[in-house]
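Incident review: delayed structure delivery

Summary: a single-chain prediction request sat in the queue longer than the usual turnaround. Root cause was a stuck worker, restarted by the on-call engineer. No data loss occurred. The affected request and its eventual output are reproduced below so the record is complete for anyone auditing the incident later.

Affected input:
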Amino acid sequence: MDCRELLEPIQELHNTIRNAVVFACEYTSQDEMATVADDGEGDTIYSVDRVSEEMLVEFFEREIAPQVPIVLIAEGIHGGKLVLPRGTREEDALFRIIVDPIDGTRGLMYQKRPAWILTGIAPNKGPGSNLKDIEVALMTEVPLIKQHLSDSLWAQHGKGIRAERYNRITKESQPLTLRPSKAKTIEHGYVQIARFFPGVREELAAIDEEIVRGAIGPVTPGKALCFEDQYISTGGQLYELIAGRDRFTADIRPLMEPILQRRGLRLGICCHPYDLCTELIAREAGVIITKPGGGLPDEGLAVEPDVAWVGYANEAIRATIEPLLNKALKDRQLL
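Output delivered after worker restart:
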């Protein structure tokens, strides 16, 4: 079996999760959706997360495992992974499938921003399998209850991307064309360093300021030459780059650990491989995705690793921003 043969059934899973989560948001109070269901060592699990998590294992056990043995990787699974069919040896699995059933929970449960269902499929190369091994990826928007349109995107390695827009009133889908920005400068565009959680936000903001000043100069009185959008969802951040709305985004939270240690503080939540498992779609669309300092993200397909990543809309933006970002990190001995 090829990775591509899993695309259609997993698309159906995404659609089912999307519909179930929207239904739950429509008929459950905001306070109930935002209730903490589990606050273990990983990310906090809210009640809205349980809607999708409960469907995940049941689907793969019923629809996929009888046809092909897999390693399913997702937060909410005990130990972070499950080999299916149960009792199968991990080395006998054909694929590793990493899933984030809801990326962007916090925005969705308060009905501020859509969330995303994310899945990456890679051949099973053993415990060393990593993000670069993903050959098929798909992401599906979970819309706000006041929003009737939602997008789905998918990609195969080397084959470009496809996308469609679903109308939940008419139940119809239409093909969708998405393209990254071709702008040569960050002026009058959205650019940002992710800093949406407490911990070291002032240092991240300082890096952001250095990059912007280096790229377009000091602030002009009465003007705003660029803007930022702190979208608390890695899938959402990737979508904004793919759709041409953002020109540069960097999530460098894991690099901040030395600064926090010097202050006697600990690193909080960071991006994990399941958050970035659809970066293949961005790259196939033409977005440039790298680790800070260069190279593709290559963290293992597991729930634990912290991931730092950078996205540029095009080569011109990268040529301007990357040297400034690298300098800011090296000046702080973070790169």
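Verification: The mean pLDDT is 93.
Action items: add queue-age alerting; document worker restart procedure.
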